[in-house]
Structures are given as C-alpha cells and as structure tokens.
Amino acid sequence: MSRYRVEPTPAQEAVLLRHCADARFMWNLAVEQQSHWRPGRQPAPGFVEQCRQLTAARQANPWLAGGSHMVQQQALRDFAQAMRNFFRGTHRKPRWRKVGRDEGFRIVAVRPEHVRRLNRHHAVVLVPKCGWVKFRLSRPVPDAVKSFRIARHAAGRWHVAFAHIPEPLSGPGTGEVAGIDRGVRVTLAVSDGTMFQAPAPRPVARLQRKLSRAKRGSNRRRKLQRQLARAHARNADARRDWAEKTSTIIARRYDLIRIEDLNIRGMTRSAKGTADAPGQNVRQKAGLNRAILGSAWGLVATRLERKAAGRVQKVNPAYTSQTCSQCMTRDRQARESQAVFRCRACGYCGNADVNAARNIAAGHAVTARGRSPLGRRMNREPQLSP
Ligand SMILES: [Zn+2]
C-alpha cells in the first residue's frame, strides 16, 4: 500500500464525508444482519444477496440512492472479506463502526487515466461524485493501480492508499542465505551482522497524561485528542515507511531469506489469557507486546513475503537464542545479557541477536517441507555457511 496525503477542497470534503457515511452505514447494516444469526438459523445473507437487497433499498430510499452505489457495494464486499478473515481465524470479528473512527471507503475499477500528475509535488485522482481530488505526490504512484481507499484519520487528515501488488524483486543470484532475528532491542539482526533499527516512536505519554487531566467536553480536551491522534499517526507513518524500505533492501540483498515462524497475533493475544486460565504477568507482557508491535516486525515480514515471493522460509524459532551458532551447544546461560552471547563449550562470543540470526539462517528446523528454492534439500543436517 502506498499512502498519500489528500488535500480536498471544502466542497470535496463534504462529498468524501458522505461517502464515508455511506460506507459506514452499509457496514453497520451488515454487522447487524450478522448479529441476528444464531446456531440453527438460516445463514445471514452473503455478499450476493446483500447486493440484491442494496439495489432494492436504493429504489425505495432516496437518501440511499443519493450516495455512490460503488462505495456502498464495496463496503459490503469489504465486510464479506472481513467475515472470511474472521472464519479463518486471522482477524477479529468485524465490529460496529462509529462516526469519526475507521472512516473510509473504497473505489474500484480504477483506470490509468483516473490518476494524473499535476507537477512535481501534486497529482489528482478521480473520485466518483467528487471529481478530481488533489493529493501530495510524496513518491511515485505505482503502475497498474486497480483500486484505492480514501480514509479520514481521527486527526482530520485524509489519505489515499493505492492497492497494487508489488512486482516481486529478484535477489543477487549469489545463493546468499540470510537469517533474520526479530528482536526487541535491535529491530532486525541479519546473520551477516547487518542490523536494522526501526525509528523510535516519538513519545506520547506526556500528551496522554495531559489528556487524562483535561476536563471532559472542554476545548482543551478536543485539542489534545487531535494532537495525540496526530502523534500516533506520525509514528505509524514512520514505521510503515521504514518497513517498506527495509524489506526492499533485504529482498534485493539476499537470495534466500529465513525468518522466525512467529505468530505475532497469537503472542499478543495470549497475554490476556482466558477465563479458565487468566494470563500471568499480564502487565509485564503488555509492555513487551507494545514493544513488539512497535518495532514493526510484522510489517517487514508481510512485505518480504510479497517482495521476495518464494524466497522466504519460516523457521521454528525454538532455542535459536540459546544455541551456539558455532558448535550447536544449547545452553540457557550462554545468553550473558540481552546483547551478548558467550558459548561456554567452544568460547564463541558475539552479538546475541546475530547469533540467533545465524541459527535461523542455518535453518535448524525449517517448517516448510521439501526442497529449498535454491535447489538444496532442506531436511538435511543443519550446516552453517562459512
Ligand atoms: Zn559454541
């Protein structure tokens, strides 16, 4: 996804807000239909049936007919996708959308001539019922854009995100294998010793404290809320940008990329525990989870799997941080500190994250079966490249 800041005129902003309201209305309608479903009842209407209902509702309801059919229909399609994600277990159940939060809509069937460059800094995109809307050309618009989403952030800013599937990048062709350890101290450590550090998030604690002291309903509170939302947005932008650049560098520099098979979602969820077994050290884990999510691992991994398609392998991360990458001795006490690994069997001493990355590169336990994309068998004894 490439995101660009949109600069609508006041008249255009009114239309964009109407599109947001339409999308939210259809989405919430779908949530409501779904919420009536109980085991044993007829299934809630699917996308095709909902589209039929939408057409009928537009004929009966002038307010609905005044909105964009495409925006309304795409909201239903997005909801159908959200339900599929929910059933697959990768996402939470789609929830009710509120005014001013998660506001946005999708436009599909975009043709190349619907995006035009004005000058070095600005371009325009054609939005139904809204006309040409200006956006900041902070980087080139990808080719072959098929759809885009326009969203309004809580801070009042508008963004357009063009959906395109990036062309897979090719590696150097040298057969170089890299293992990547995703740590908390160093965001990414590569087995050859390269480190990538995600930008440190700008602190928001001071704003949060101020906000908690501000009187409800006051102008000051609203102002602080906007400032906080803007600070969060800046942090998220910086992380996304970093993940985009870092994944490109890695995909170009190495032929085979091994990463930990770590389910970030699963990890962040387990801290809460269940009713039967409430999570232990919930507070401690919550802090760690923030660090994990903040360090932008997941972003890089998903981008890598696209950019280095077929060249990414997931490795079981068990013991990678306790095993010596030189002599394979497993020793819990070898991890002298967060930063240093010192093997008591062979005397190897090095950066703990790089040691773990080398174990991952060696692919001690490659999760995927069969042959590697480089033509070597993967289920052999682990061997370190010299
Ligand atoms: Zn050793």
Could you characterize what this model shows?
With 386 residues, this protein is α+β, with helices and mostly antiparallel strands. It has two domains: 2-163, no CATH class; 177-362, no CATH class. Helix content is 39%, strand content 16%. The chain is built from ten helices and 14 strands. It has helices at 10-35, 47-60, 62-65, 69-88, 205-213, 219-253, 264-270, 282-294, 297-307, 352-362; strands at residues 2-6, 103-107, 115-117, 122-127, 131-136, 147-152, 158-163, 177-181, 188-190, 195-196, 256-260, 312-315, 340-342, 349-351. It has a five-stranded mixed beta sheet with strand order 10-9-8-11-12. Strands 1-7-6-2 form a four-stranded antiparallel beta sheet. Strands 3-4-5 form a three-stranded antiparallel beta sheet, with no helix packed on it. β8 (177-181) and β9 form a beta hairpin. α1 (10-35) packs across α4 (69-88) and α6 (219-253) packs across α9 (297-307). The longest helix has 35 residues, at 219-253. It is elongated, with a radius of gyration of 25 Å. Bound molecules: zinc ion. Residues 324, 326-327, 329, 343, 345-346, 348 line the site of zinc ion.
